[in-house]
Design goal:
Blueprint lengths: L12 H11 L15 H21 L4 H13 L3 H14 L4 H13 L3 H14 L4 H13 L3 H12 L5 H13 L3 H17 L6 H13 L3 H15 L6 H13 L3 H14 L6 H14 L2 H22 L4 H14 L2 H12 L8 H4 L2 H14 L6 H18 L8 H13 L3 H14 L3 H13 L3 H14 L4 H13 L3 H12 L7 H14 L3 H14 L3 H13 L5 H15 L6 H18 L2 H10 L2 E10 L5 E11 L1 H6 L1 H24 L1 H9 L1
Antiparallel strand pairs: 1-2
Helix pairs in contact: 2-3, 3-4, 5-6, 6-7, 7-8, 8-9, 9-10, 11-12, 11-13, 12-13, 13-14, 13-15, 14-15, 15-16, 16-17, 17-18, 18-20, 20-21, 21-22, 22-23, 22-24, 24-25, 26-27, 26-28, 27-28, 28-29, 30-31, 30-32, 31-32, 32-33
Subcellular location: Nucleus speckle
Protein name: Crooked neck-like protein 1
Organism: Mesembrinibis cayennensis
């Protein structure tokens, strides 16, 4: 080739193959049809064909398809003996090949060689007894030949091998086709017997089929017995909801509604809840069809109970689920069942000894005790009271009182003992609680109990113990003093108040002082009240104390009350001049002004008006937490005239502002001369 440059048009291998396919260049023409006209030519054809088959077999003896094609070709020539010989040779090579046996037997049956076919089937089921297809074909052939006894005999031989479920049902259906019900029942019994002894087919559906067979043929007693045997066989360890649903539907068909209800309840009590959904559904449908309102409610309650059981099993410390479960059980179940659920609930003690984990748990004990006392229907009231007492005592023993306690439990226990008219036990319980774990709530409850019993000496002792335990509790001091006041011992009450205000630390001192002052006012000890106000003002200069002091003087009802009140306001105003909280000073002046408007003269009113501050708006710079500028903020401030007189700089500032304002007005007038001309003309 002179020009070795690539051609302008390139051709790929794919294009070459596609063109060859399109033009059919590789297809060979079909061989010509050959017509055989005489015996010699036929024999020659047979010889060539047999030689081809034999060569193929010789090349690979294990390819069974070559043997089958060879035998089928001989069969097509009606050379049955030769075909039989080929099949036998093939079986010598691979007797485990199922297709080979089937083709061999089908050839014999096709050519009506019944005995040969029987012989082949016998050999097949003897050699390969676990191939069910041989048995099916064999029994079908015998049945088609009308040899019922022979077919039954083959089935019997098959059953000795304990085949799968379908084989037994085929045998049963065979007997039913010939109306042999007793024989079918016997086969079912053998089938079930294998289930019991050998555990070949321990499946619920086999029992159900047997029972339905009996029901279909109107042997209802036998069917019921089969169901009962099935329930007994599976027991409580391997219960299946399908068996009980089928049993219940059978009884429903027989109009035995009470039996149905018993079956459903028995199953629901024993089958795990997650496996009983279908059972619940069928039970609900049954009750809606044949039950009354109570029955429907029972099934709904049962369903909810199972749901709660699942919740508490998943998380035993889910006390809210226990509360819901107990509420349900209390509304429907007997006392023993409720007690059992309560015992299961309280057995789940919180694993951590921290009060926040016990707050929900402790209500289980409270509800248990209240149930035993109020709702349990036992033989006698004494037994109820004793059970309740045991519940309270067990709960008290369980609580770790050294770390925390629950005053509610102690108080409920004491109240219970009082209801039982057992006062010593109630006092003992409360005394024990105060000794083990004193709390404000326990003291208050014990004192309230003794007050109701009018045991005032005991109340005094309890208040003393209480105040030793919590001397900062102002409410206790006040209540103690009020008790002494009610009892008429004024000196003791005053002494208690004096002790109280002398405490170094108090939680609500303002309430205590107010109570002490109100006490003295009630006793009309005005001088002592004034002294109390003076003592209080030494501790605090709060505006409300001054206003209260002034109002006290005004309400004293004497001639000098107005002058005293005005004097108090004067003192308060002087004292609060240095106060940083200007709003409090404004509050004082407004109270003083209200007083003067009601009781004062024009002179005093004018004076207080001069003391009232001026409210002005100011701006101040804000700073963020990181110190950066956060903008400006507007706020209101008060400027008091008294402060202005003492600060000349403020007066100078006011004069400067006035001068600036006058300057701005004069500049505006100079900028607008036309306006002045118009004004002069007008």
């Amino acid at each position: 080739v002179k020009n070795k440059a690539p051609a302008e048009v390139q051709i790929t291998a794919e294009q070459l193959l596609r063109e060859a396919k399109e033009r059919e260049l590789e297809l060979l023409p079909p061989p010509p049809q050959q017509k055989i006209t005489d015996v010699e030519e036929l024999n020659d054809y047979k010889l060539r064909k047999r030689k081809t088959f034999e060569d193929n077999i010789r090349k690979n003896r294990t390819v069974i398809s070559n043997w089958i094609k060879y035998a089928q070709w001989e069969e097509s020539l009606k050379e049955i003996q030769r075909a039989r010989s080929i099949y036998e040779r093939a079986l010598d090579v691979d007797y485990r090949n199922v297709t080979l046996w089937l083709k061999y037997a089908e050839m014999e049956m096709k050519n009506r060689q019944v005995n040969h076919a029987r012989n082949i089937w016998d050999r097949a089921i003897t050699t390969l007894p676990r191939v069910n297809q041989f048995w099916y074909k064999y029994t079908y052939m015998e049945e088609m030949l009308g040899n019922v006894a022979g077919s039954r005999q083959v089935f019997e031989r098959w059953m000795e091998w304990q085949p799968e479920e379908q084989a037994w049902h085929s045998y049963i259906n065979f007997e039913l086709r010939y109306k042999e019900v007793d024989r079918a029942r016997t086969i079912y019994e053998r089938y079930i017997l294998f289930s019991l002894l050998v555990i070949v087919h321990p499946d619920v559906k086999n029992w159900i089929k047997y029972a339905r067979f009996e029901e279909k043929h109107s042997y209802f007693a036998h069917a019921r017995k089969v169901y009962e045997r099935a329930v007994e066989f599976f027991g409580e360890e391997h219960m299946d909801e399908h068996l009980y649903v089928a049993f219940a539907k059978f009884e429903e068909n027989q109009k035995e509604f009470e039996r149905v209800r018993v079956i459903y309840k028995y199953a629901l009590d024993r089958i795990p809840k997650q496996e009983a959904q279908n059972l619940f559904k069928n039970y609900t449908i049954f009750e809606k069809k044949f039950g009354d309102r109570r029955g429907i409610e029972d099934i709904i309650v049962s369903k909810r109970r199972f749901q709660y059981e699942e919740e508490v099993k998943a998380n035993p410390h889910n006390y809210d689920a226990w509360f819901d479960y107990l509420r349900l059980v209390e509304s429907d179940a007997d006392a023993e069942t409720v007690r059992e659920v309560y015992e299961r609930a309280i057995a789940n003690v919180p694993p951590i000894q921290e009060k926040r984990h016990w707050k929900r748990y402790i209500y289980l004990w409270i509800n248990y005790a209240l149930y035993e006392e109020l709702e349990a229907k036992a033989s006698s009231k004494n037994s109820d009271a004793e059970r309740t007492r045991q519940v309270y005592q067990a709960c008290i023993e369980l609580i770790p009182h050294k770390k925390f306690t629950f005053a509610k439990i102690w108080l409920l226990y004491a109240q219970f003992e009082i209801r039982q008219k057992n006062l010593p036990l109630a006092r003992r319980a409360l005394g024990t609680s105060i000794g083990k774990c004193p709390k404000n709530k326990l003291f208050k409850g014990y004192i309230e109990l003794e007050l109701q019993l009018r045991e005032f000496d005991r109340c005094r002792k309890l208040y003393e113990k209480f105040l030793e335990f919590a001397p900062e509790n102002c409410t206790s001091w006040i209540k103690f003093a009020e008790l002494e006041t009610i009892l008429g011992d004024i000196d003791r009450a005053r002494a208690i108040y004096e002790l109280a205000i002398g405490q170094p630390r108090l939680d609500m001192p303002e309430v205590l002082w107010k109570s002490y002052i109100d006490f003295e006012i009630e006793q009309e000890e005005y001088e002592k009240t004034r002294n109390l106000y003076r003592r209080l003002l030494q501790r605090t200069q709060h505006v409300k104390v001054w206003i209260s002091f002034a109002q006290f003087e005004l309400s004293a009802g004497r001639e000098e009350s107005l002058s005293r009140c005005r004097q108090i306001y004067e003192e308060a105003n002087k004292a609060m001049r240095n106060c940083e909280e200007k709003e409090e000073r404004v509050m004082l002046l407004e109270s003083w002004r209200n007083f003067e408007e009601e009781f004062g003269t024009d002179t005093t009113k004018e004076r207080i008006d001069k003391l009232m501050p001026e409210k002005i708006k100011k701006r101040r710079k804000l700073q963020a937490e990181d110190g950066s500028d956060a903008g400006w903020e507007e706020y209101y401030d008060y400027i008091f005239p008294e402060d202005t007189a003492n600060q000349p700089n403020l007066k100078l500032l006011a004069m400067a502002k006035l001068w600036k304002k006058q300057q701005q007005e004069s500049e505006a007038a100079e900028m607008d001369p036309d306006k002045d001309i118009d004004e002069s003309q007008s």
